[in-house]
Amino acid sequence: MKNIFALIVLALIFTVSVAAQDSSDHKHMDMKNTHHDMKSMDKTQQEITRNIDPKTAASIKEIVGYYLQLKDALVNDKSKDAAAAGKEIIDAFEKLDKNFLSPEQKELYVEVEEDAKEMAEHIGDNAGNIEHQREHFDMLSADIYDLVKEFGGGQTLYKIYCSMYNDKKGAIWLSESKTIKNPYYGKKMLTCGTVEEEIK
Amino acid sequence: MISKNVIKKIAHWILLSLIIIFIAIQFIRPDRSNISGQTLQTDISKTFNIPDSEFSILKNACYDCHSNNTNYPWYSNIQPVGWLLAQDIKNGKAQINFSEFGSLSRRRQISKLRGIENQIKDGTMPLPAYRLLHKQAQLTTEQKKLLINWFRETRDSISLNK
User: Fold this and answer.
1) What is the pTM of this model?
2) What is the pLDDT of residue A36?
3) What's the gap in Å between the CA of B108 and the closest CA on chain A?
């Protein structure tokens, strides 16, 4: 009798938890489709050489800004802040208006966006699990690197390489400064890394 | 003071209603249609060269939730287990679907391969609850090594900066 009772209670707990999961699944994702009405800006030298629309350049700059926030959060071992920045990155990607991209630009952008958004989502969903966030930051960094190579970063960026991370296979990150502060190890190995490239 | 008899009565009623609820939920049947019965051209085994030994581990341990073909066990007919399973399949396929792996861009394949490798390594996959019920998903150290190496080599072979 007791056993049956326990079983049934368990079954009910399961039921409730599944129902709860289901209802949270149905919650509609908040798709923010805000369009920034930017004042027409003068094209910077970079926009002319790369032939980037000012609106696009501004959106990329925003993505890079949140990426750098994420990087700093990981440097400081702050998992919660990293998660928040990850969510901002998703929004920033969604804000970029693809209508201002040339066909070639669009091809690369869409591919990068798909992957980067997924990485950012994992980072956003894993507050409290900083190692998991760092794994995804590795892949996200490769995406953002390709993005700024194509579109420019709106500021000078440095590609920094750490040979230790990922079973000594190495990983890169982007930084606004040449001073090495390692986001993959934080306090543990703050100064591991070498500057490989300057991206203007 | 509530007498012992009253307490007994209440307990009986509670038990009875729980049994009735349990029987009632059996009639709310989840979707059990994740059986396409075919291997698509986009299946990971068609996208890359995968040796039989690695592929059979992958099929036995991962394909229930990460492909278009689930082997439904008998207890998936009992609720709420069946619901949980349907939920796991839905979530699993949203993350990675080995049946359609070939349709992803190379960049995303690389990311996925990397993620899979990490999750096998740190034991987050296959899911602990699934491992409890499926002997085939309880991977030995040797099996893990085989899979991890294959995923790593495959990722290196399509690496973007080649």
Assistant:
1) 0.75
2) 39
3) 6
